[in-house]
Design goal:
Layout lengths: L2 H12 L3 H13 L4 H11 L25 E8 L3 E7 L2 E12 L2 E7 L10 E12 L2 E6 L4 E5 L25 E17 L2 E12 L2 E7 L4 H4 L4 E11 L2 E14 L11 E3 L1 H6 L2 E14 L4 E5 L6 E2 L3 E2 L3 E2 L3 E11 L4 E6 L1 H8 L3 H11 L3 H11 L3 E11 L2 E11 L4 H17 L12
Parallel strand pairs: 4-6, 10-12, 13-14, 20-22
Antiparallel strand pairs: 1-3, 1-5, 2-3, 3-4, 5-6, 5-7, 8-9, 8-11, 9-10, 11-12, 14-19, 14-21, 15-16, 15-19, 17-18, 19-20, 21-22
Helix pairs in contact: 1-2, 1-3, 2-3
Bound molecules: zinc ion (ZN).
Length: 439
């Protein structure tokens, strides 16, 4: 059944305007609400006698709203309001997302209409839809919501405006304001939803740390190298770590103060690092206990650059592979394990030779696995300090190494740190421990 038919059904059942029902239904489905659930919630909203609800929605404090509320009337102060463009049924819609707060709590909202919301505004939203996202209630402010601005100001403990440090940012955050230095920036051409488009990507930093960013509509202030203030940034996960997204709706201004970028990489126990679910820049110290298959001399697909086996790419079939060097080593510090991935340069360093040397060694042995064997002999059973980007996903915990060196720490200090780490990890839920999964 098409969405349209569902709307037809509902409209005639409930005796309300079909266009209104269609738009509500679209909103809910757009947000991944299953159609049946969406219909039920609309039945509640339009007062279907069968489900018991009718009349005006009840007034609720934010802390009392649950995902089961069909729709509510709520008064709160806008903490953040960030515009974003989404594509729906082939055309672009501008929506506003942010947080609304009162004395009892905070709730995320999405405004489908331009109500002109700004941080600091106190509003009463009549007939606001409630939907569930990730187990939490969220508000939908749409066509059928009556929105009015209120003069009274609430006694809030929450901060208005969305200012954050990079360390504060979490995947899913909207309408954040950060002040950062631009540490790396490159212009790239990508295949966007409207064909080829240019973007900026790189790394930003502040006192609290560093994070990768993508600037979808290149801002000269960022390309010039910053430092910059970015208003209305949102955070999305990319390859297992949070990424700052700067869109056409973000405001980027040059800052006239310098930003001291936190220089120290966080050193963590492996178990503790894995339990965070992914960190952009982290240092781990542990023993290499194994070098996994797919290490040493490998071949990549010339189309997609993924590692191929016996001349076969999973996507492109029979291909003429490109030779490359790589190591996937398992690092263990007693609190957990990660797979450390070394690129061609780091691999050449631990192998003690170039790609040419590796090809030569493989030719002589008539077996390319000898290269991985040589690397195994050199690093397994020894302690290393690794710095890089940790991602944790269904493939396990992987650390993309930027630096890989033999640990030169004072062994006593290491022992102490290790004990502390073990104690800390013992407090963390065991379930977060990464299982070794083949990527
Ligand atoms: Zn391929």
């Amino acid at each position: 059944m098409e969405l349209d038919d569902h709307a037809e059904d509902l409209a005639s059942d409930l005796g309300v305007d079909k266009e209104e029902v269609t738009s509500d239904l679209q909103n809910l489905v757009e947000y991944s609400v299953p159609v049946d659930e969406a219909k039920q919630s609309l039945r509640r909203k339009y007062g279907d006698g069968a489900s018991g609800g009718s009349g005006a929605p009840s007034s609720k404090e934010i802390g009392d709203i649950t995902p089961d509320d069909g729709n509510v009337t709520v008064t709160g102060t806008v903490l953040t309001a960030g515009k974003r463009s989404i594509r729906y049924q082939g055309s672009d819609h501008v929506i506003v997302e942010g947080e609304l707060a009162d004395e009892t709590g905070t709730i995320d909202y999405t405004a489908w209409e331009d109500f002109g919301l700004s941080p600091g505004d106190t509003i009463t939203a009549g007939n606001a839809g409630v939907r569930e996202w990730d187990g939490e209630p969220e508000l939908n402010l749409g066509e059928s919501t009556s929105l009015s601005f209120v003069d009274e100001s609430l006694q809030l403990t929450q901060e208005i405006g969305g200012e954050a440090t990079l360390a504060d940012l979490q995947t899913g955050d909207r309408a954040r304001v950060v002040e950062v230095a631009v540490l790396e920036c490159e212009r790239r051409t990508i295949d966007g939803r409207d064909g080829e488009t240019e973007i900026l990507s790189g790394v930003v930093g502040d006192e609290s740390g560093r994070l990768p960013f993508t600037n979808w509509d290149p801002a000269p202030e960022i390309e010039d190298g910053g430092p910059v203030r970015i208003e209305n940034a949102y955070v999305q996960e990319f390859r297992g770590v949070p990424e700052v997204n700067v869109s056409e709706f973000s405001t980027v201004t040059e800052l006239d103060r310098e930003i001291e970028v936190g220089a120290d990489t966080t050193t963590m126990a492996v178990g503790e690092a894995v339990a965070t679910g992914g960190i952009y820049d982290v240092e781990l110290v542990g023993n290499v206990i194994a070098v996994r298959d797919g290490s040493g001399l490998i071949q990549r697909c010339p189309e997609c650059y993924r590692v191929i086996q016996k001349g076969q790419c999973r996507t492109h079939g029979d291909v003429d592979g490109i030779d490359d060097l790589r190591v996937k080593a398992i690092l263990d510090d007693g609190t957990g394990t990660v797979t450390v991935v070394l690129d061609d340069e780091l691999t050449a360093a631990v192998y003690g030779g170039t790609l040419e040397d590796a090809l030569e060694q493989a030719r002589e042995a008539m077996d390319q696995s000898v290269v991985a064997d040589t690397i195994r002999e050199r690093i397994v059973g020894r302690e290393f300090s690794v710095r890089g980007h940790l991602s944790v996903d269904e493939y396990g915990a992987n650390l993309d190494a930027e630096r890989f060196g033999e640990s030169d720490d004072d062994p006593q200090a290491r022992a102490r740190a290790f004990l502390e780490a073990v104690e800390k990890v013992a407090e963390i839920d065991d379930g977060a421990d990464a299982e070794e999964v083949d990527a």
